[in-house]
Structure prediction request, 132 residues.
Amino acid sequence: MTKTYPADLNQLSAVAADIEAFCGQNGMEGLAFALNLSADELFTNTVTYGCRAKTPKKISITLTCERGGVKMVIEDDACRFDPFSVAEPEVGSGVLERKVGGLGVFFVRKHMDEFSYEYKNGKNIVTLFKKS
Prediction:
């Protein structure tokens, strides 16, 4: 399944519904939470921080069943941003001592079995995999 959404935070409910439906149709209901958490975080970051001068118009999400799990590819045409450039947050620190930011990508890393990034043909491409 490939769907393209306007780069608008109001689309998050549609993204979540599509991921839930895909997982349900393919007997992968147990993966929906991790996939939704990751898609929500990456979609939100793209819309919110995707470079004010070059706000993406669309974000595409592709879901496929393979290797006993679900592969999710998220593509956008925002400014180049490698999520691996985000330092891991100091989760051992108290909330008041910790720097703001970085928790979302941290959660993506923790919930996915595979997580990669590439910039190709003017697009950010994040590939995630969650095994069942």
Remarks:
- The domain at 2-131 is CATH 3.30.565.10 (Heat Shock Protein 90).
- The chain has a mean pLDDT of 87.
- The first strand starts at residue 2 and ends at 6.
- The chain has three helices and five strands.
